[in-house]
């Protein structure tokens, strides 16, 4: 009997997890990574006696597969993937593969911005409420490896558009779509509608008793919904007042979520989440918790004890009364829009890096309201300087994070804020946004040690 051949492309967290699960299910598994594997993942594969290659793709071997599990980081447009699809070989994501082997209820969360916060919060609310729940997808440990080694009843899955692109038969019980703004257009032929369609794959295989939670203030979302009806329970989230039916709304600092007879209300000030975008994220997560049956006390307790992800509006220290905030995960303009709208003091804004075709004009009003100085931290700051030259009183350029932090302190008064919210990718000066945020945190800590408080 021919053992089904599965090839895993990409040897990161999702790929190695998928390889382990495929092996356990009796497949002939081969993992191939064009780059170098980390020592930890290499050791895991060796210990499991899974065959692998690194720093190359042996095409003949890959094209011989019965099914290919592809890392979300590999675009569908690369010749190898096109060749696989042309010959009819299924190319799927780790999420799709792992979902076949679990009966757990799946909660899928997507959106251009806010999905990490909403996923972490939904997971925390369910855990606090006593649910046996896992967290996977674009965050945390591999979904496939958890399906292999854990027995969770629920999974919260953070899903990027790239992961959704390789989902076909997976059924999600609860689906969350926070917003859609232009991002990653280089992966979608610079066609915004293709990106919108990708996000709407969150609604594939919908059943009438599924729940769909979405932000009813995101134009592309509401436009797309208006064009098509989906057969499931819809719970909109709004920022502008009451809802006659079910869903969530925020008004005057109060957030209310309603599903059926279940109504939950909390003041945003009683939670660790700041800014209007986090009111949306919070309401979406609360509606998820309600949809699977968490009670009000558990939800309130979970909101009080929640700690958001690192690098996402993360306070990293106060020096001489100046607060430093690390928002290194803000790699697009829309994320910065959220960050600046959360500022309630005059702000020194540190931005820059590898520009992804940014349009900074949507920030003009907020920059005018909040930003007293702009520090450009990048190899090429031309675009930022050209756009904000006449709009921000002080602009300073540097390629050193320590210099940026020290300059931030000198430009800010006690009670003001220095915000790292780059709007750009980090690869010009840093390994990734985590490295950028970590170096920022370290620089602030060192600065605090050297500054003598007057």
Automatic annotation (TrEMBL):
Belongs to which family? Belongs to the MurCDEF family.
Single GO MF descriptor: ATP binding
Locations listed in the record: Cytoplasm
At the top of the EC hierarchy, this enzyme's class is: ligase
User: Any idea what job this protein has?
Assistant: Cell wall formation. Catalyzes the addition of glutamate to the nucleotide precursor UDP-N-acetylmuramoyl-L-alanine (UMA).
Q: Which GO terms describe its cellular component?
A: cytoplasm
Q: Catalysed reaction(s)? A: UDP-N-acetyl-alpha-D-muramoyl-L-alanine + D-glutamate + ATP = UDP-N-acetyl-alpha-D-muramoyl-L-alanyl-D-glutamate + ADP + phosphate + H(+)
Recorded source organism is: Spirosoma rhododendri
Q: Which Pfam families match?
A: Mur_ligase_C, Mur_ligase_M, MurD_N
User: What is the protein name stated in its UniProt record?
Assistant: UDP-N-acetylmuramoylalanine--D-glutamate ligase
Residue ranges constituting the Mur ligase C-terminal domain according to the UniProt record: 311-424
Residues in domain Mur ligase central? Answer: 109-289
Residues bound to ATP are 111-117
Q: Which Gene3D superfamilies does the UniProt entry name for this protein?
A: Mur ligase, C-terminal domain, Mur-like, catalytic domain, NAD(P)-binding Rossmann-like Domain
